[in-house]
Amino acid sequence: MLVRSWLTALLFGLLAVSVSWADPPLKALIVDGQNAHNWKETSPVLKTLLEDSGMFQVDVATSPPKGQDMSGFQPDFSKYALVVLNYQGDEWAADTKQAFVDYVKNGGGVLVYHFACAAFPKWPEYNEIIGLGGWGGRNETAGPYLRLRDGQFVRDETPGRGGGHGPMQPFQLIVREPNHPITQGLPPTFMHVDDELYGWLRGPAKNLTVLATAFAPKELGGAGEHEPVLFTVEYGKGRVFQNALGHTAKELKSVAFIATFLRGAEWAATGKVTQSVPDDFPGPDKASIRE
Ligand code: ZN
Asked: What's residue 9's pLDDT?
């Protein structure tokens, strides 16, 4: 009996070791520290979502507060498979910017979360990496809008604002690219909770694939257009996923956010999506909330 329980323990031990060897967590870095949004509330939620997925081990790089010396803010991006941007604020030091561009060019994964699309309006490489952005004085000089015309996204150079949204409202996402790993297997339309529906985003929009849109009615403060809210950008060897949802921690309880955030994180980090669509993923009419 004793020998058998030793053997059992040994076997379980070996199994545990081999599982942890075969499937090491990916390393992710959340960048925050300045944002016109409540990053102190949202970053811990993003960290928990990534870690609870079992796929990621997460560090957080928090910059100095607004107006302080940024020269010492030097995250080692190259150590990570994924960088999650929850930052909108002062310019980074030149060598930090170069390290970030090199990271993406060399195959790094980036997830642009909500208001990170408003960061760095004057940094050309950042705007190429995020594809579309808003606010910070962005206008037609930032690049075109992407507008859905006859089933295709076309570049619309019409002069005007870059970035905007009406009041918080519930909205439905419409999948525009069902064959991308991030959207594969999702229902063609699905509901999100009351949230800001970002519109009028504009930018270089190179190598950009719109995965999902949401319609922003004029009577609810929108452009009367199908606005891109989930999209990818390929920059060098790097993969970038932008998720415009999630104004505060409350909206991060929406399964429409959680599932697209995690699928986008895995794709940006690895180029694949191995996770299944959760059972509580919403359908076309009713949002799904996870407490
Ligand atoms: Zn917001």
From this structure: 52
Question: What separation in Å is there between the alpha carbon of 17 and the centre of ligand 1?
Answer: 43
Cα 97 off chain centre by: 19
In the chain, what are the domain boundaries?
26-66+73-270
Rounded to the nearest angstrom, the distance between the alpha carbon of 196 and the centre of ligand 1 is 6
| pLDDT value, residue 20 | 46
From ligand 1's centre to the CA of 216, what distance in Å?
15
Q: How far apart are CA 230 and CA 89, in angstroms?
A: 23
- pLDDT for 18 beyond 50: no
Indicate if the pLDDT at residue 1 is higher than 50: no
The SS3 assignment for 193 reads strand
Q: What is the pTM of this model?
A: 0.92
Q: Cα of 63 to ligand 1 centre, how many Å? A: 20
User: How does DSSP classify residue 180?
Assistant: S
Dist. CA 275 → ligand 1 center (Å): 28
| Residue among 24, 118, 99, 25 nearest 61 (CA) | 99
**Rounded to the nearest whole angstrom, what is the distance from the C-alpha of residue 40 to the centroid of ligand 1?**
14
Q: What is the CATH number of domain 26-66+73-270?
A: 3.40.50.880
Give 13 Cα–ligand 1 centroid separation in angstroms: 47
Inter-residue contact 108 to 121 (CB < 8 Å): no
- What is the distance in A from the centroid of ligand 1 to the CA of 251? 10
Query: What is the token pair recorded at 172?
Result: 């439905």
Residue whose C-alpha is closest to residue 200's, from 177, 174, 221, 231? 221
Instruction: Name the more confident of 12 and 230.
Output: 230
